[in-house]
Write a structure and sequence with these properties.
This protein is an alpha/beta fold and 278 residues long. The protein contains ten helices and nine strands. The protein has a seven-stranded mixed beta sheet, with helices on both faces. A two-stranded antiparallel ribbon has the order 6-7.
Length: 278
C-alpha cells in the first residue's frame, strides 16, 4: 500500500494543474502549523528569532518555499518540460576548468532551494557523479526517490560506503556530491554561525582535498524568474584545512542570510549544539 502511494505521489503528481498546489498549501499549512507548533514549526520560529533572521522572513514563508522547491525539484528530475522553470547556471567556468585539468572534484552544498536538482545539474558535465545520501526510515520512500534520481551518469551511495566511493572518485577523476549542513550519523566539524556553535559535515571533503581533489562549493535558489544554480568558490587540492573550514562557514552563513526562507530550518538536528560562541 505504501509503495503504491509513493509511486502515485512521485510519478503522477505532474499531471495535476499548478493552481491545485497553491490551493493545497492554503489548506494544509494552518493544519500543519497547529499540529507542529511544538515541533518543526515551533523550531523554525525559534531559530529565526535566535539568528535574528525573523526580520527577513517568517515560518510560513519557510514552509511555503520548502513546499514549492520540492515541487521544482520533482519537475526537474522528471524532466517535465511543461512545468519546469528556467534554470540559469552561473560561474560554470569553476567546474569546467577543473574538469579540463582532470582534477577530481568534491561538489558540496546545503539544503537550500530545490536542492534535489544539484546532483542532476552535475550530470550535465558528462563525468561520473557519486551522490552520498542517507536513507529514509521508510524504505518505500527511499526507493521512490532513488527511482526519480536515476541518471546514466549518477551513482547513488549510502554514507556507509564513503571509503570506497572516495577512492573511486579520485581514481576516475569523477565528481563526489554531498550536502554538508545535515547528517544522521557521524561527527561534524564545529564552526561558528551567527555567534552559535553549529556542525558542518566537512570530514569527507577535507579528506578528499588532501588526497588530490578540488572542493567546489555551489548552491541553488529560486527567484521570481526561475531557478539559479551558482558555482561559488574553488578550493584547490591540499588547501589548508583550517582555511577551508572557516571560509566555507562564512559562505554558508552568507547563503542562508541571502535567502533565509529557502533553507530547511525545520530539520531537527540543525543547531544541535545550541551553545553561544564567544
Amino acid at each position: 500500500m505504501q509503495k503504491w502511494f509513493y509511486h502515485l505521489v512521485f510519478f503522477q503528481i505532474k499531471n495535476l494543474p499548478l493552481f491545485f498546489f497553491e490551493l493545497l498549501f492554503v489548506i494544509i499549512y494552518p493544519i500543519y502549523k497547529k499540529s507542529h507548533k511544538h515541533k518543526a514549526w515551533g523550531r523554525v520560529k525559534r531559530l529565526l528569532e535566535e539568528t535574528k533572521l525573523d526580520s527577513k522572513t517568517t515560518p510560513k514563508a519557510v514552509f511555503y518555499s520548502l513546499y514549492k522547491n520540492a515541487l521544482d525539484s520533482f519537475r526537474v528530475l522528471k524532466n517535465d518540460k511543461k512545468t519546469v522553470r528556467k534554470i540559469t547556471f552561473e560561474n560554470e567556468y569553476l567546474i569546467l576548468n577543473t574538469i579540463t585539468d582532470k582534477t577530481p572534484i568534491v561538489a558540496i552544498s546545503i539544503h537550500q532551494g530545490p536542492f534535489e536538482i544539484l546532483h542532476r545539474s552535475l550530470c550535465r558535465y558528462h563525468k561520473n557523479v557519486f551522490l552520498l545520501t542517507n536513507p529514509f526510515p521508510n524504505t518505500n520512500l527511499t526507493h521512490a526517490l532513488h527511482e526519480i534520481r536515476q541518471h546514466p551518469h549518477l551513482f547513488e551511495h549510502s554514507t556507509e560506503e564513503v571509503g570506497s566511493v572516495l577512492k573511486r572518485t579520485i581514481r576516475e577523476k569523477g565528481i563526489l556530491a554531498l550536502l554538508i549542513d545535515q547528517a544522521k550519523n557521524g561527527k561534524g566539524n564545529k564552526v561558528q554561525l551567527w555567534d552559535k556553535s553549529f556542525f558542518l559535515y566537512l570530514k569527507v571533503p577535507l579528506k578528499a582535498n588532501q588526497l588530490g581533489a578540488a572542493i567546489i562549493t555551489f548552491r541553488t535558489f529560486t527567484t521570481k524568474t526561475g531557478i539559479i544554480v551558482r558555482f561559488e568558490k574553488l578550493y584547490p587540492p591540499k588547501t589548508s584545512e583550517d582555511l577551508i573550514k572557516k571560509s566555507i562557514a562564512r559562505e554558508v552563513e552568507h547563503w542562508i542570510e541571502e535567502h533565509p526562507e529557502q533553507w530547511t530550518w525545520n530539520y531537527h538536528k540543525n543547531f544541535k549544539v545550541g551553545e553561544n560562541a564567544h
